[in-house]
Amino acid sequence: MRLVIERGELLRALGHVTSVVERRTTIPILSNVLLKASDSTISFKATDLEREVIEEAPASVETPGTLTVPAHMLHDIVRKLPDGAQVELQREAERERLTLTAGHSRFALQLLPAEDFPDIAVGPLPHTFEMSSADLKRLIEKTRFAISTEETRYYLNGIYLHMATRDDGAMLRAVATDGHRLAQVDLPLPSGAEGMPGVIIPRKTVNELHRLLEASAGSVTVSVSDTKVRFEIGTVTLTSKLIDGTFPDYARVIPQANDKELTVSNSDFMSAVDRVSTIASERGRAVKLNVDGNKLVLSVNNPEGGSATEEIGVDYGASALEIGFNARYLLDIAGQLEGDQARFMLSDPGSPAMVRDSSDGSALYVVMPMRV
Amino acid sequence: MSIRQLSPETINRIAAGEVVERPASVVKELVENAIDAGARDVEVVTAGGGLSLIRVSDDGCGMSAEDLALCVERHATSKLSEEDLFDIRTLGFRGEALPSIGSIARLEIVTQEQGGSSGCAIIVDRGAKGPIRPAAINSGTRIEVTDLFSATPARLKFMKSERSENLAVSDVVKRLAMAHPQVAFTLVTGERASLKLPACKADADGLLQRLGRIMGRDFLADALEIAGERDGVRVAGFAGLPTLNRGDASQQFLFVNGRPVKDRLVVGALRAAYGDTVPRGRHPLVALFVDVDPRELDVNVHPAKTEVRFRDAGTVRSIMIGAIRHALEGAGHRASARGGQDTIATLRPVEPAAPSRTTGAAWSGVSSRVASVPSSSPLSDFESPQGRVHGFAEPVQAAFTAFSATGADASADAEPARADLMDSPLGAARAQLHETYIVSQTRDAVVIVDQHAAHERLVYQKLKAMLTEGGVARQGLLIPVIVELGEEGAETLAEKADELLELGLVADRFGPGAVAVREVPALLGDTDVDGLVRDLADEILSESDDSALKTRLEAVASRMACHGSVRAGRRLTASEMNALLREMEATPFSGQCNHGRPTYVELKLSDIERLFGRR
């Protein structure tokens, strides 16, 4: 293999693929990136056995070939090369090494056999649809904070992406929950997604995908089977295994009969919660919401540190109510709302509360109260 | 095959199989008899691991010739009144020991009744009872068992080495000796006297003296007296400080009505009482004496009587826990004195006396070689054990250099020690070394405190107090977690619902063999609810302790304490140091950090003086 590639192209491609490569692994080849040169392109592939990312870049290829080199090392080298440099990659015939030459710099990297590089057996992906990357990004951003990190309930360690039917038509819905709170976001169902299976996309894949989407405008092609999902974003392809489990029947926990409606300015609410929770010292300290008429009093009481209260004007018509929440959960949810007004649907101090954006019906959040 | 009535000899041999398992069982039965006979001095002699000879002599009440003839008969005893089988106030009562021993060995009893004029003797040889004949003896009883198991060769094959039989014998005698400090014991195994315990006073001091002889001098220095009483159950004895601990539970003794027993009750009670003050996998040293009305107790669980059953085990357990906790809290910041002794031992130089006795070469240039090649030296026997040889070796010297180097600048801001502070247990802070250790001075000692470990403990105790006082905040679960526990597990967990609620866990029955967990302690965050509840149910079922939840909460508190405390490397002012010392004195359990390590060592002035050869 012998080729010349512009440093910027090389850096961009490596940046996309190397982040799936674990820094510490027990299988040496997983630290490597697979380089495949043919015609006028070079492709890069990296994997952690659960997911793989493939990226292509233009290059002037003299001799085609396939080889693997340490991914993070190659990435670090290229990052430190001067902007605009022409990078020459050449496999040394007599030794199992790749020489990288740029200007006066010269590196030789150890190779591992390309035929050992693992491949995710993808199989057919029967459902394919296209959506804007901004839409997909929105689905992820508004739900991923609620993904559980607790490993025993592994089926909660991802975003559940599936079809849902509402009064106003079929929807593509993303749901995440950790058992304490839940986030649900809907989008009109893209054409081609009809009949797709419900899939749980693992957290690491979600984060990789989000990173790739940030760098892209345009559209994303999503292909799904029962066990795999693939996202094609421009020249990058991310293929991932899915979490093999059953997402719980989340619809049951979304309260239907919460009739105490409270509307509050989201920014006022958020900064007030943030301020009063300063007093809380330990993790999971409750902030108490006391609402009566058009007055909401937020309070935190910490026997060690003192107490804090703040009053904000709200729109509330139901009977007075006192209910406590984990301050961090409230902040997480408030941070997702885009409109000016947050709409809380409450019931009693022991039942879940529902939060929505007053201007946007596509997202809803549920949070369980805390009790002392 | 027709059914036959077994002969009395056979019956006795079968019974012997239960009572007499190994030589130590014989010793146990005979010494118990001696104690029951009111002996003040008991001597035990064994040979060949007890197989060739066991001789127990006492100065107890002895027996008349008529009693002697009867005592070797089966089910003959003076200790049990037929009117009330449950009023057992003696160690023995079944009337089995002597005939059992007599059926499998050669048994000779020589005795003289107290106040009687002449002694008498009897020999039972493998079940064959000889005549009563006169014998010469001072008052008391001497029993000799020879050729043990010669009538049961099968059992003989299963004996362990002489050494391990000797160990078992000595263990039996030690346990009985701990329970009866007012009796003097002598144990001779083989040729040398392996144990000689003079009689002690029958009060707490005497008991502690006796325990110290058996459990070691460390225990003597670090034992706390415990006492608790409720509903006719009395718990007394001594418990070691948490920093004095062992890798196994062999130094935990339980005595019920003067009877050494083994009971799992102690394990759970000790775990609950010591809790987080002892490192995982380490066991504190204790000797617990429980006195209950004999009617509340079943000692007849096993012929060897090493197990008992309490009618109300819960009460006994809670009194034990209460008494030990009370003592530990009273001990406050006290850490094991061993820390100081270990330090002194490390610092102490090799005794120069040994080399000086040689040709004198030791004082010339070659002296260092003597220490480095101990095996080739004819004097190796005189030298300290390897671990101590490094007395003035390089690293220790280096530590001293650092001592003086940092000592100078650190003491700059330490005010002159105030006289009143010197009287408090941890003294007046004089300096901080390596920004990690506080050195303080008391009237008669130097105290070195690990500032991080100490402060961590203080923060932790505070967090724990907050947990208990303020209640545990509970986070509701959107989706209740259903945990399959089986009928029994679900039932026991449901019974404990109130206690669990206080710790922040709400779970109720869900169908026959499962519980639904609806709220969990908010402190635990996104946690493995299923695993937690299973652990809890297991613990409650095994009656050990329902501490799984508490342990986890405390683990979080401990982590938070670690982050929220003064780190090593932070420079403290004199008043900060003094404040820390005063708080340690006021806080229970501050003598050890959350991981059970000591937070300070105290070097007695007398030890330091010895170090420099001033004493």
From TrEMBL, chain A:
- Subcellular location(s) per record: Cytoplasm
**Keyword check for RNA-binding:** no
Entry keyword set? Cytoplasm, DNA replication, DNA-binding, DNA-directed DNA polymerase, Nucleotidyltransferase, Transferase
Q: Which residues form the DNA polymerase III beta sliding clamp N-terminal domain?
A: 1-120
Q: In what residue span(s) does the DNA polymerase III beta sliding clamp central domain sit?
A: 131-249
A GO CC annotation recorded here is: DNA polymerase III complex
Q: Where is the DNA polymerase III beta sliding clamp C-terminal domain?
A: 252-371
User: NCBIfam families recorded for this chain?
Assistant: dnan
Q: What is this protein called?
A: Beta sliding clamp
- Per UniProt, what is the name of the gene that codes for the protein in this document? dnaN
UniProtKB/TrEMBL annotation, chain B:
Keywords noted in UniProt: DNA damage, DNA repair
Instruction: Note whether DNA damage occurs among the keywords.
Output: yes
Task: Cite the MutL C-terminal dimerisation domain residue spans from the record.
Answer: 429-572
Q: List the Pfam families hit by this protein, alphabetically.
A: DNA_mis_repair, HATPase_c_3, MutL_C
Any idea where the DNA mismatch repair protein S5 domain is?
211-329
Q: What does this protein do?
A: This protein is involved in the repair of mismatches in DNA. It is required for dam-dependent methyl-directed DNA mismatch repair. May act as a 'molecular matchmaker', a protein that promotes the formation of a stable complex between two or more DNA-binding proteins in an ATP-dependent manner without itself being part of a final effector complex.
PANTHER family per the record? DNA MISMATCH REPAIR PROTEIN MLH, PMS, MUTL, DNA MISMATCH REPAIR PROTEIN MLH1
Q: Which family does it belong to?
A: Belongs to the DNA mismatch repair MutL/HexB family.
Q: Which NCBIfam families match?
A: mutl (TIGR00585), PRK00095.2-4 (NF000953)
How is this protein named in the record? DNA mismatch repair protein MutL
- List the gene name: mutL
